[in-house]
What does this fold into?
Amino acid sequence: MKKYFLFIIVITIFISCKQNNNKEKVSVPLYDSSYMPAVFTDPNRMEKIKTAFTVIDSLYKKNAEDNHFPGISFGIVVDGKLLYKNSYGHADIEKKIPVTSASLFRIASMSKSFTAMAILKLRDEGKLDLDDPAYLYIPELKNLKYATADAPVITIRHLMTHSAGFPEDNPWGDRQLDVNDKSLMEFIRKQITFSNPPGIAYEYSNLGFALQGKIISKVSGMRYQDYVKKNILEPLGMKTTTYEYSDVALDKLAHGYRWLNEKWNEETLLHDTKDGSWGAMGAMISSIDEFAAYMAFHLSAWPPNNSKDVGPIKRSSVREMQHPWRVNGFNANFIFPDGRSCATTTAYCYGLGWMKDCDGKVYIAHSGGLPGFGSQWRIMPDYGIGVVAFANRTYAAMTTVNLRALDTLIKIAGLQPRQLPPSKFLQQRKNELLKILPNWGRAQESVIFAENFFSDYLIDSLKKESKELYIKAGKIVAIKELKLENQLRGTFIIEGEKINMEIYFTLSPENPPLIQEYRIKEILKQ
It folds into this structure.
């Protein structure tokens, strides 16, 4: 009987393992090879970009001088390459070691996106779920006393988006890098003081990212820092990027300083504890040369395309990292560095910040600040450009100068975002639509309209509207190219002698897709 039960147990374990293995397998999705990714249409784009470098260089140099940076290093990444870089000042004032693009700076909270990327890699491998309760991996969290009785349990996603309910902890968190995991667990057992119940508000939490570091260690069976090095840094060629300053060659290490009483005072560098997860929130040390490779990887996720994924994580997961998951601000009167007013909306992603301005430009960024250091990187995926800057002065502000650098680059080079080329279906429906305008002859008998169309648009009204506009336009001078919103929706201009007309239409999800919505209107001649 005992042997029988032992056999049953073994079989049960085998089936369970088999099911888990099957769960971890992710099938490769089928895809439509006709999908056309967005492209840059200016053949002289790169040459125009290069004309802006001298002006941008002067912005960073002046920012360093005005704000008493001992040293600054910065770079401009375009289409996956570090196209321009420069440095000013000293990495070590006492030894007069100059800053270079290979100098290694502590980049503080810029470390957070690497933590989020590690979490997503483990998720993609089927080893965790973002909506898992965090206590499944850190049992000490199971006995937390939440702010309210109806609070949901903290999930990994809450930790990733600064919405776990923990209070903002920048000043306190800055001093926790060298705290080990034993002390972190003791801290949790003593209870965490909540500022909100989980899931209802954004509040920047270094603690939340330290807990993610612990989860990564638990799930991977490796120290957090070792997991990131092996699975993210090394595949990207970031060979000297590390977490512990004592591992850095003395002639490469940027020392940190505070400007006080009209002089630089050296800050004490904090160790990254060998047995600690706090490094996940801000201990990384990197150079412009190597961090540019990480920026290039983020930019490579755009536009979505059919090329092979080469990692270190899937491009779709990188785009997921950059998605605005937790809206945290709207500024109707945001003032750009050039003085113009342009409303902005901001949000937090996974270890990244997101901003969209009144012109529709999207910026992905994260800053870093610790005693002795300040940094930021900012990319514009739709434009294929990004900037990064490190300085070795306490909380050196880089947000404004980076925004100004990108703004200046776009203006001088006259940059435009990628444009979607017309899909074969949209182009086909445009041509078919033009054949029935303005009279709509035999339109109801055609096979280009979805079943809803003539219920939503009365044929007599369609004829009247288009005929009146065509008469008002006079002779048709030109039919302009489609301007796409996506593969199944767009507009085009019919240019007349007297007025122009804009036609908007959108296709259904059928195969083949049919016209489900249509509008025609007069627009001003340019």
Remarks:
- The mean pLDDT is 93.
